Automatic annotation (TrEMBL):
The keyword Ligase applies. It comes from Equus caballus (Horse). GO terms for molecular function: aminoacyl-tRNA ligase activity; ATP binding. The gene is WARS1. This is Tryptophanyl-tRNA synthetase. Residues 51-73 are annotated as: Disordered.
Amino acid sequence: MASAMELTSEIVAQEELVKALRARKVSKEEIDSATQKLSLLKTSYKAATGEDYKADCSPENPAPGDERGLDATEAGEDFVDPWMVQTSSAKGVDYDKLIVRFGSSKIDQELINRIERAIGQKPHRFLRRGIFFSHRDMNQVLDAYENKKPFYLYTGRGPSSEAMHLGHLIPFI
């Protein structure tokens, strides 16, 4: 059985898919199929947690047998999820371990310099100050940009319709 965190991620992704399908005005059958899958995921979530799924709420308890739960800090590991960061280390979170755990790559000075050369101006201050510390496939994006080939970035964030509000500003910073 999937953990509450895994189910939450799947539910969020499926909700985004349903919104996108509705925005594109696809056939009723496609929307119904996606909605049915969403309903099944929410049923699985309730079976795993004993609670109804609530958007934007952290699962109260990790699934039994999930070693990454709050007790992970007792084992000397950092615990990071979309709602909480915990560490047992007096030095704070070990970002190198997070990079390995999430399969990303460290943003080093060489990459920052390459970004600056590509865009012709200083990179965003969050990059320069090390606030953004890792990436996935940034070299591929830069290769495409430098070779003037089209590419797209999917962030999983942003408006799902043409209506925009102040909260949509974050992805544009």
